[in-house]
């Protein structure tokens, strides 16, 4: 179910495509006011918990270089591996608890050919969850699986482990998905900052940290204990491009309540869509690889695309065709960086398209027709995500009626 799409700024151009694909859809509802749930699950297994547990000791075995991984078992939740985002059509895969090398290898081996791994996790954020994410990410790196999705459903867990897991994901290119019917509450919210892309369909909520094993006998003593945790959360959010206001909420909202974040707040705090910090880093890398002129031309192309193509009437094919016709005006496909050029996912043979684009500039021939963007068999189901060849993910809402007209 791979749909060729633009290597564009995640939030703006995906919205443009969806608007064009379903032009007759009703306008989006107004953003609801902030909501507060009357209760929160603050059992030992959930909530936002902080403890005095020391950071994990440096292991002797480097799991990136050996198959002799230390024995480990997943006990805080259930995990399964799938090689497609389509959980409606294919399910979530078989569950596993053994986090040994060959157990993880066997679970992920079918994903090598598809180039996509979706880790479905339901449960508490804890040390074994952090180990699960690290080991699946490491195995994906070994197998050359570039598209990694954490499909999570969690009511919270330990703050310190959420920070460790988030930093691990930040270094290994994960998309984090809270799908319909799932939740991401309390400590789980911190995980969102670690993803390259965040796709949110289920509710996201936060509340005050619960300090376990506290020796405080006064508010002042408790505040002093929580201050260190608060500083740790702020530093984590800052280095991953998320708003530090999230840490403030986790100090003020009563822990028996739950502050549900609105869509606007998720955007404002940098917890949904494309990660701004990762986007800046990718842009810096693109300048190094292709030059500043390339990036400026790319920016100009996408501004023109949004203005001229996002309102094109018709299906995805028409939008893609508009973009393909627009590319030569901005020097794309680029001779040096054809694979990084806009709409490169539509090019079966980027080198040949460079030559065709050069000829099109001279008025010799027309650009070759684009590959179909989607077929009826590829029609996305409700609440699925679509991955492109640029390792970008996006949420695809229900639009069966629009797809039927394609």
Automatic annotation (TrEMBL):
<keyword id="KW-0732">Signal</keyword>
<dbReference type="InterPro" id="IPR029045">
    <property type="entry name" value="ClpP/crotonase-like_dom_sf"/>
</dbReference>
<feature type="region of interest" description="Disordered">
    <location>
        <begin position="25"/>
        <end position="67"/>
    </location>
</feature>
<protein>
    <recommendedName>
        <fullName>Secreted protein</fullName>
    </recommendedName>
</protein>
<feature type="compositionally biased region" description="Basic and acidic residues">
    <location>
        <begin position="376"/>
        <end position="406"/>
    </location>
</feature>
<feature type="compositionally biased region" description="Low complexity">
    <location>
        <begin position="366"/>
        <end position="375"/>
    </location>
</feature>
<feature type="region of interest" description="Disordered">
    <location>
        <begin position="357"/>
        <end position="406"/>
    </location>
</feature>
<feature type="signal peptide">
    <location>
        <begin position="1"/>
        <end position="25"/>
    </location>
</feature>
């Amino acid at each position: 179910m791979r749909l060729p799409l633009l290597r564009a700024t995640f939030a703006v151009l995906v919205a443009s495509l969806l608007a064009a694909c379903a032009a007759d859809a009703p306008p989006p509802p107004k953003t609801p006011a902030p909501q507060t749930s009357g209760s929160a699950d603050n059992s030992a297994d959930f909530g936002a918990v902080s403890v005095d547990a020391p950071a994990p000791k440096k292991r002797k075995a480097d799991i990136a270089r050996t198959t002799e991984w230390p024995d480990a078992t997943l006990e805080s939740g259930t995990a399964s591996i799938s090689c497609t985002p389509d959980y409606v059509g294919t399910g979530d895969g078989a569950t596993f608890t053994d986090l040994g090398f060959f157990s993880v290898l066997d679970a992920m081996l079918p994903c090598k050919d598809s180039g996509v791994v979706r880790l479905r996790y339901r449960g508490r954020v804890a040390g074994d969850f952090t180990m699960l994410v690290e080991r699946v990410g490491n195995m994906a790196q070994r197998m050359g699986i570039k598209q990694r999705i954490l499909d999570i459903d969690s009511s919270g867990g330990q703050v310190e482990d959420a920070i460790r897991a988030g930093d691990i994901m930040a270094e290994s290119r994960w998309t984090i998905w809270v799908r319909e019917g799932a939740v991401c509450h309390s400590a789980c919210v911190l995980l969102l900052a670690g993803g390259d892309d965040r796709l949110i369909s289920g509710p996201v909520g936060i509340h005050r940290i619960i300090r376990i094993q506290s020796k405080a006998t006064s508010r002042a003593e408790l505040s002093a204990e929580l201050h260190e945790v608060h500083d740790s959360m702020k530093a984590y959010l800052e280095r991953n491009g998320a708003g530090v206001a999230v840490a403030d909420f986790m100090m003020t909202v009563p822990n028996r309540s739950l502050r549900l974040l609105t869509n606007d707040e998720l955007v404002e705090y940098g917890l949904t869509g494309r990660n701004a910090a990762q986007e800046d880093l990718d842009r810096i890398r693109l300048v190094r690889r292709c030059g500043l002129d390339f990036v400026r031309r790319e920016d100009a192309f996408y501004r023109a695309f949004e203005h001229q193509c996002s309102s094109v009437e018709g299906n995805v094919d028409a939008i893609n065709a508009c973009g393909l016709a627009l590319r030569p005006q901005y020097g794309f496909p680029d001779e040096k960086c054809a694979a990084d050029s806009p709409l490169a996912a539509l090019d079966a043979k980027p080198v040949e398209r460079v030559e065709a684009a050069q000829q099109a500039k001279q008025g010799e021939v027309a650009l070759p027709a684009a590959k179909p963007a989607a077929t009826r068999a590829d029609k996305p189901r409700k609440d699925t995500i679509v991955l492109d060849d640029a390792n970008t993910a996006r949420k695809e809402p229900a639009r069966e009626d629009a797809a039927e007209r394609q």
